[in-house]
Sequence to fold (194 residues):
Amino acid sequence: MTDTGGGADQAGGVPGTTGRARKEIRAMTALCSPTPTAAPATGPGKSRRTRPALARRLVRPQSALLVSGVALVPWLYVLARTLPSTARVGHWNVAWVGLDALEALGLLSTAALRRRGDDRHRLTAAATGALLVVDAWFDTVTAAPGGELAAAVAMALGAELPLAAVCTALALGRERRTARDDLRLIPGRRPTRR
Fold:
């Protein structure tokens, strides 16, 4: 390349560059340099730029969850007062088979992900734990008095709730250490054990 300006370019600042190269350097410099803060704009352009930022500040997940949880409290009262204590239900078997199928899928996927060392096993463990608690709850409250209720309580205490506790411990527990994690790689040094 030849220097057409006789030294360092005023705009590009790089000696020995052509006009085209200087333009490319200026473009790359503009991409990497921080943007100057502009004075607050007025008019229609301002509202378009600030709406998404304002929406992000106003609608936070924790706010939506809090409002939804508070709104459910009066709804619980309405349900308790208006729902009948007994009901005939269609597709009862499909509902229970579907719930148990989801539990089996959750247990299998949690085991497979954990075995592979994939940290996403925490997500499936949390969901599966919740499903197991729901299963135990509905088994016991929908069981007829007598032997059916005793079997539901035995299943809840002997299988569903202990499995839910294991899933919760997996979801909240520390990261699993593998043999690979024990080797610490430090730049310029050989791997050492912790």
Summary: The chain is about 65% helix and 0% strand.
